[in-house]
Amino acid sequence: MRIICCLFGDKFNQWHVDNLKHMIDTYSGIKYDSFEVITEDLYGNWYNKLQMFDKFRDGENLYFDLDIVITGKLPNLVRKEFTLLNDTWWREEAHTPLNSTIVSWTGDVSHIWDKFKADDIYYLEKYNKGSDEFYYREVEYQTYDPICPKFNMDRLDTDYNVCTLGQMHHVMEEGWTGWWSKYFL
Amino acid sequence: MLKICTVYFGDLYTPDYVGKLFNSIRRNTSIPFQSVCISDNPNVEADLVLPYNHFSDVKRHWHKLKFFSPNFADQHPGDDIIVMDIDQVITGNVDDLIGHAVHDNELITYGVWWNSSLDTNGGFYKFKSGSLKYVWDDFIRNPEYWQLYYYKNGHVHFKYYGEQNYVNWKIQNREGEITKTPEEWISKYHTDFNENCALNTMYCDKFGVDYMMLDDVNENIKVVHFTGPGRTIHDYDTSWINEHWK
Predict the structure, then answer these.
(1) Residue B236 vs residue B71, higher pLDDT
(2) What is the reported pTM?
(3) B71 vs A10: CB contact, 8 Å cut-off?
(4) Each residue's pLDDT tens digit, B108-127
(5) Which residues, in sequence order, are CB contacts of A64 under 8 Å at separation 6+?
(6) What ipTM was estimated for this complex?
(7) Angstrom distance (rounded) from CA A6 to CA B199
(8) Do residues A117 and A86 lie in contact, with contact meaning Cβ atoms separated by under 8 Å?
(9) B88: helix, coil or strand?
(10) Model confidence at B142, in pLDDT bands (50, 70, 90)?
(11) Nearest Cα residue to A65 out of A113, A9, A121, A145
(12) Helix residue ranges per DSSP H, B95-238
């Protein structure tokens, strides 16, 4: 099984990659064979993530964004079909209900990359709020049951062992402390 | 504990502004405090220096709003937090200023005697740790929007200005209390000679004194704020700055 993450641009750095690996190794209970980091910055935005469907065409794959907090043992997140989060159990649908903070698939789903790459300029403009809308409108997908709520600064949500920071990723910077601090590197 | 917090970034000012501000406060108060600075230069002098992230969604002076969160800068319940701009010269005893009583959901800020459309002056905020956390929490939900809102709507004339406008609006919107310090405690200084003369006259008329600034600063004044875009302290060579800003 392969763990995948992406590192590009200025907002995240090697610490964030090391921190993700630390949380997976220390708290998640996930056993994996390789930890892969995609660093090629083709688009200057999160469409870079789609490269994973081209680079990894076999076996079990589990992708995580860098701005998450893992606080305990995670359920089995590996999926056969292309699967990502549906956030509408905790937020309004907006332009897409989907969230690719956690993604999994088994085998070859390179058709996602091929479709995007064949007309990338068009899709970048059409879905300029992010790649999650591309998945929503253009790709067949499955979604996880509720597993990953929004980060709550005031308290740890003990019903779930992973949460997404979203706009709150500043709490990963030096100077911020709270319930999440002990889980970080 | 009392924390006095600042932000230093870029190259308009020099790193010694931070140390000079904190040193001059310590010379002029009997109240113990911890000095804190968000800085992109590790050479600033403060008890706690936290990194200024140039790659953050948060821009320029808006980093000051981080101190409204009790989760930032090692705050503890009951702490008193002061946020100050670094372009200020302390010229008198500030016990009554930094020791000003404050309660939950209250902001203490400079009362100013010159024309101002706001009840809040960004040069000085004092509040109870965490009691105004909504200032940061509501801002960080959409920083891009707020950081340009006051510029786009013509309230300010420089991009990314408007942080004090936001603080003023947010606290009023949440029915917080804004308390101003006595107006005669604060002064401001201009590059323009005629403007300084006008300010002197205005101060004298309003407070019935003989002068605001001559070779020295009026004894009622505690702080001189070098307000305005691009205005610096180190460009001046006057006796009162040399005496107080060190």
Answers:
(1) B71
(2) 0.91
(3) no
(4) 999 999 988 888 999 999 99
(5) A3, A4, A5, A20, A24, A101, A102
(6) 0.89
(7) 56
(8) no
(9) strand
(10) very high
(11) A9
(12) 95-98, 134-140, 143-152, 163-173, 193-207
Interchain CB distance below 8 Å, B72 and A11: no
Q: What is the mean pLDDT of chain B?
A: 93
Instruction: Please give the Cα distance from A6 to A13 (Å, whole number).
Output: 10
Two structure tokens written together for B147: 């950081």
Q: Name chain B contacts of A151, Cβ cutoff 8 Å.
A: none
| Residue A1 banded pLDDT, cuts 50, 70, 90 | very high
Residue B48 burial by Cβ neighbours in a 10 Å radius (0-12, 13-18, 19+): middle
Task: Read off the tokens for B136.
Answer: 């940061």
Among B161, B176, B178, CA closest to B119? B178
Return the sign of the alpha-carbon dihedral for residues B154, B142, A66, B49: positive
Distance from CA of B180 to the nearest CA of A (A): 29
Q: Which helix (H) or strand (E) holds A142?
A: strand A142-143
Contact list in B for residue A178 (CB cut-off 8 A) is 71
- Rg of chain B, C-alpha, whole Å: 17
Please identify which residue in the block is written with the tokens 């230093």.
B8
B55 interaction partners in chain A (CB closer than 8 Å): 9-11
**Does B38 contact A175 at a Cβ distance shorter than 8 Å?**
yes
Alpha-carbon distance of B224 to B202, in angstroms, equals: 15
Closest CA of chain A from B232, distance in Å? 28
Counting one residue from chain A and one from chain B, the pairs whose CB atoms sit within 8 A come to 38
Beta bridge partners of A69: A163
Dihedral sign (CA B30, B31, B33, B35): negative
Q: Rounded distance, CA A78 to CA A82, Å?
A: 10
Q: What are phi and psi of B119, to 5 degrees?
A: -90, -5
